[in-house]
Amino acid sequence: MELEIHDVSKTYANGVQALKAVNLTIGKGMFGLLGPNGAGKSSIMRTIATLQTPDSGEIRFDGQNIFANPTEFRRQLGYLPQDFGVYANASATDMLDYFARLKGIRNAKERKNRIDELLDLVNLTEHCHKAVDTYSGGMRQRFGIAQVLLTNPKVIIVDEPTAGLDPAERNRFYSILHQLTDSAIVILSTHIVGDVTNLCGDMGILNRGAILARGKPDELVASIERQIWHKSVSRDELRQLRLAHKVISTRIVKGEIQATIQSDTAPATNFTQSAADLEDFYFSYVPELAV
Ligand code: ADP
């Protein structure tokens, strides 16, 4: 099972070049597409979902160009966009039944079994008769996953699914997504580094329409091991530090500014070296805005 994205570029009618020759080969399991807002994540997701065509380049699933027969590809695709509509007052069971009919599951018993199984998978059995538009953000996302899974898709695309979820809802959502990775290609777009750390065996960093880094999270982190240094600084010191060093991020720790610097050698004697993590790797490619 393989999805190959070759040199995909897209410029919108307003002149924004959202994708610049994107190349990615994605296999079974969970792939994290990490990037800041405006990086082009939704653009690549919508393109894979065949909702828009690239200006140039190609996307192949198991060797077949997905745009040659989009209807056929869509049968194998599950797409959970950032905002998906729900019908006022309809319960989860009723909506899933409606979508299952649309997707051609004609046998009522088969539909009921599949819907019961999916509601159980996403932990919504208890709430299945409540109107979906009264659900919390996390319940809605879980409902969205149930809907996407109705037809056992081989390629599952989830666009920024954890934005707006509280930590408990996010964890519950992670554990559901995690169960899908044995049987499908799951592509998860997010601006939250923790989503990728917790879930993805493979990842890419997208910024300004281009893939900046690609690989397994562990290996990417290993590539900057021993290069991460911390120091608490004043605002003036931080300004000086930026002139001489690669300050990749800053955060407030116990009321002080802690600067993180990437350097092969100690920037000065009073810096503390620390273990690199995926956030450091991300910020080494997508620098944080200066505070
Ligand atoms: P992300 O999902 O990473 O936030 P998007 O793919 O939504 O990024 O957007 C990438 C860039 O393309 C942004 O500059 C955005 O404003 C622009 N963009 C996205 N969709 C459209 C569109 N339909 N028409 C014009 N510009 C768009």
UniProtKB/TrEMBL annotation:
Signal peptide: none annotated. PROSITE patterns: ABC_TRANSPORTER_1, ABC_TRANSPORTER_2. It comes from Pseudoalteromonas luteoviolacea DSM 6061. Gene3D superfamilies: P-loop containing nucleotide triphosphate hydrolases. Belongs to the ABC transporter superfamily. One of its GO terms (molecular function) is ATP hydrolysis activity. This is ABC transporter domain-containing protein. InterPro entries: AAA+_ATPase, ABC_transporter-like_ATP-bd, ABC_transporter-like_CS, P-loop_NTPase. Residues 3-233 form the ABC transporter domain. It comes from the Bacteria. CDD domains: ABC_drug_resistance_like. The keyword Nucleotide-binding applies. Keywords: ATP-binding, Nucleotide-binding, Transport.
